[in-house]
Amino acid sequence: MFLYLWLSVMLVFITYSRWLLMALLVLEIMTFFILFLMSYYLSSFMLSDFMLLCFFSVFVMEGVIALAGLIMLVSFSGSDYLSSSSILKC
Question: Residue 39, class by beta-carbon neighbours within 10 Å (0-12 exposed, 13-18 middle, 19+ buried)?
Answer without folding.
Answer: buried
